[in-house]
From TrEMBL, chain A:
Protein name: Phospholipid/cholesterol/gamma-HCH transport system substrate-binding protein
Domain Mce/MlaD: 42-119
GO molecular function, one term: phospholipid transporter activity
Origin superkingdom: Bacteria
A Pfam family of this chain: MlaD
InterPro entries: ABC_MlaD (IPR030970), Mce/MlaD (IPR003399), MlaD_Phospholipid_Transporter (IPR052336)
From TrEMBL, chain B:
Species annotation: Marinospirillum alkaliphilum DSM 21637
Keywords of the record: Cell inner membrane, Cell membrane, Membrane, Transmembrane, Transmembrane helix, Transport
Pfam families: MlaE
Subcellular location: Cell inner membrane
Family: Belongs to the MlaE permease family.
Membrane topology: Multi-pass membrane protein
The protein, known as: Intermembrane phospholipid transport system permease protein MlaE
Length: 154, 260
């Protein structure tokens, strides 16, 4: 058996490593309290149907990831989904007020994400602003349903 | 015919007697364990022997299992264009199943067999009886620190295993095969729950730690004090604890995840 000092030091290190692993599993893996150094450019958008959109889903512009969805809640006045997203701070003051947001799906089975399309308005979006021009998620079953009912009518 | 029946009955009685002895043994060693600095020193020494010295095998096998999961998961998921789900696959299988179970199996092989052999040799060379002669209780001096060290070390090892395994999956999936790192982590974070997955995995490994250490130490303490007895008890430790871990894993999984 090695000397007592070494034993104690290595057991201490072992405990620390275990604690580190627990912290890693809690915060990095299960996202216990996920706080990505909040950028201060948040906008909200209202959607009629968000499909499978989840908090932490991607927000893209021209296919490039520019932010994440931070929260989704039900707006109890209009019964729409209120989606808050956090965007890259570099875009602050560069997105026009009539930027459009659409919920899209990556691939047939992939995740839902929000894709932004810049507008032409002269006024710019500010922190806490609202995107007016939104397009709900495309639900595949509804599309198929519509297609079937249309084709049987003929 | 009657002899065969008698043989069956005898082995049944022996099993029940051994179960009873092991229960009494556990109670006697743990009840009234002194909370002195000397007892703490013994415990630290055993945590070193069963925990720190098992670290290498846990780190290496965790890394490789994570890497294999990453590779296998990727080749399957990429067929469906769903390779972003790699993170959640690796993390869920590790935290729920693989980390507690594989760490417990490795622990049984690496530390459990060593515990059995050590205590068995102490018994065979009559060190335990001489301790009793000079008025030291071997259950408290030898057995209790080893039991408590095992209960403590395995959950930590299994947490480390999960962390290293996810690192291995990340290495293969993101660094090598080019899965989007944002999707890897965000899918993982939305799929893995702290309470449902991490804590349940931890509970599993606590149960396994209890069972494996108990079996190992009891087999060492209860063996026939010959060289053949030691070899047999060491084998039994590994076989029994592996079976117990796998069987209990099914029961625990059924209890924890059946309604998720």
């Amino acid at each position: 058996m090695r000397n007592q000092r070494w034993v104690e030091v290595s057991v201490g290190g072992f405990m620390l490593l275990g604690l580190l692993a627990l912290v890693f599993l809690a915060f990095k893996v299960s996202g216990l309290t996920y706080d990505p150094g909040r950028s201060n450019f948040e906008v909200e958008a209202f959607f009629g149907d968000i499909g499978g959109l989840k908090p932490r889903s991607k927000v893209t512009l021209a296919g490039v990831v520019v932010g994440r969805v931070t929260s989704i809640e039900l707006d109890e006045e209009w019964f729409e989904a209120r989606v808050v997203m956090q965007l890259d701070e570099r875009l602050k003051g560069k997105l026009s007020l009539d930027t459009a947001a659409a919920i899209q799906t990556s691939g047939l089975l992939g995740d839902n994400y929000i894709s932004l399309t810049p507008g032409i308005d002269d006024e710019m979006l500010v922190h806490g602003g609202t995107l007016r021009d939104t397009q709900s998620a495309l639900i595949l079953e509804q599309l198929i349903n519509q297609f079937i009912t249309n084709s049987t009518r003929d | 015919m009657l002899d065969w029946l008698a043989g069956l009955g005898r082995s049944g009685l022996l099993v029940i007697a051994a179960l009873g002895r092991s229960g009494v043994f556990l109670m006697q060693s743990l009840v009234g364990w002194p909370r002195s600095s000397e007892a703490f020193r013994l415990w630290v020494q055993q945590v070193y022997a069963v925990g720190v010295l098992s670290l290498i095998i846990i780190l290496v096998s965790g890394l490789f299992i994570g890497m294999v999961l990453g590779l296998q998961g990727y080749t399957i998921l990429v067929d469906f264009g769903a390779e972003q789900a790699l993170g959640q696959m690796v993390a869920l299988s590790l935290t729920r199943e693989l980390a507690p179970v594989v760490a417990a199996l490795l622990f049984a092989g690496r530390a459990g067999s060593a515990l059995t052999a050590e205590i068995g040799l102490m018994k065979a060379t009559e060190q335990l009886s001489s301790m009793e002669m000079i008025g030291v209780d071997p259950l408290r001096r030898i057995v209790a620190p080893r039991l408590l060290a095992g209960f403590f070390a395995l959950p930590i090892l299994s947490l480390i295993f999960a962390m290293v395994g996810i690192g291995g999956g990340w290495l293969v999936g993101v660094d090598w095969l080019g899965v989007d790192p944002g999707a890897f982590w965000s899918n993982m974070q939305s799929a893995v729950g702290f309470r449902e997955d991490v804590v349940n995995g931890l509970i599993k490994s606590l149960v396994f730690a209890f069972v494996v250490t108990w079996i190992a130490v009891f087999q060492g303490y209860d063996l026939v004090p010959t060289s053949e007895g030691i070899s047999r008890a060491t084998t039994k430790t590994v076989v029994y604890s592996s079976l117990a871990v796998l069987g209990l894993d099914f029961v625990l999984t059924a209890l924890m995840f059946s309604n998720l």
